[in-house]
């Protein structure tokens, strides 16, 4: 299962927020921000912080992508 945080970054653009400002506002580290940028998994605690900081739901900030079945 793959996760995509493009929805989150679209919200940041719409709110005219830089990634570093966003990280300070919601209380996440630069390492966590880097994970989000690379579409890597982050803890539920991080997702809750983001949702509280942006007043949104998890569904608003991430997308679960279907697994790609590559059979040879």
TrEMBL record:
Molecular-function annotations in GO: DNA binding
Entry keyword annotation includes DNA-binding: yes
Keywords, alphabetical: DNA-binding
SUPFAM superfamilies assigned to the protein according to its UniProt record, in alphabetical order: lambda repressor-like DNA-binding domains
InterPro entries assigned to the protein according to its UniProt record, in alphabetical order: Cro/C1-type_HTH, Lambda_DNA-bd_dom_sf
Domain HTH cro/C1-type: 15-61
Protein's name in the database: DNA-binding transcriptional regulator, XRE family
Organism, scientific name: Thomasclavelia cocleata
